[in-house]
Amino acid sequence: xSSLPKQKNEEDLYYYISRKVGDAIGDxxxxxxxxxxxxxxxxxxxSMTLLEMLRYRQRxxxxxxxxxxxxxxxxxxxxPVDQMKKHFxxxxxxxxxxxxxxxxxxxxxxxxxxxxxxxxxxxxxxxxDKNGCRKIALGHHLDDIVETIxxxxxxxxxxxxxxxxxxxxxxxxxxxxxxxxxxxxxIIRLLEQGKTMRFEGQCPNxxxxxxxxxxxxxxxxxxxxxxxxxxxxxxxxxxKHEYLP
Length: 245
Known about the structure:
Rossmann fold, 6 strands, alpha/beta, six-stranded mixed β-sheet, globular
């Protein structure tokens, strides 16, 4: 799960990320033949990279699968919904734009981030079921997973993470995270090289968060040892029960 050396060229980076996605899919058995996958797209670099990699790997994957994209429209001011629709039409991926009334007559200052997340997830589950999708693909990458592990330890007093392959509702729906082995900085480099894209739009409530704080901590640790993120993820499978209270 090491990040690609800086001297690698653009083409190598694209295929490197594709291989990491393939490794995660294989290691966790994320995709089966005949799967119809609902890809949650926010328009950001992570979800758009996820979609790009799943589209690319459709060409040669040993199993056949379908993709259906879903954008939950929270009414973020200035977000180019029409531009997004045009892009998905051009690349031939069906896109559902599902409005969600996050404001409910109020304004953005009243919006709670937790409620927003829960509303989006509820919509994902409902639309997956409605459209015959038993898999939901989310764009969480290695950094997201590692930061969540540390946040859960420090603020919730528990060992837990974003599972790369997580069954919900007794197996009726499975959440998959094919970017689980991909570093965020490689996604940023891919964006800079024009090999992936994003749609500009920012939540009015976007601000410094605990996740941003932990991102800084992980970055400092990684400066000392490049394998830190890999080791934190690996630790969940290497629990020494004899040394636990």
